[in-house]
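Researcher: Please predict.
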Amino acid sequence: MPINEIKWVKLNDNIDPRGRLTAIENPLPSFNIKRVFMVHQVQKGVSRGGHAHLDTDQIILGFGGGLKVTVSDGTITQLFSVDDQSKGLYVPRKIWIKLHSFNKQSICIVLANTIYNKDKSIRDWSSYLDYFDLPECNKP
C-alpha cells in the first residue's frame, strides 16, 4: 500500500487586489476527476470516512477552517491538517482514511478519480487488516 505516495498537490491559486481565485485544473497528470463531493455541517466530535477505497485515488480540500485527516496503511499512521485553500491532499487507493476535527464552518471537498462503488471499499478496520494480511493493531 502506497502511504509514501500521499502528498500535497498545489492548486492554481491567483491572488490580486480583487480577491483570490483558485482553479482546479488537472491536479495530477494521471488523475482524471470522475466525482466531486462535499462533506459539511459535520457535528462537533463526529468523524467521517473510516474506510479505504480499493480503486479510488482522492484529493482532499479543506475550506472554512479546514479539518484533520488521519491516514493509515495498517503499519504507519499519519496526521495532516487540511486548511490551506491553495493545495489539496492526495491520498492514493488502499489507504485507510478518517476525516475529523471539523468546525462549524468547515467544508471538505473531495475529488475522486472513480465513480462511487460501495462494493469497492473496506469499511471495517479488522477487515482492512485481514484484506492486506496485516497483524492486528489499533485503529487510527
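Model: The domain at 3-131 is CATH 2.60.120.10 (Jelly Rolls).
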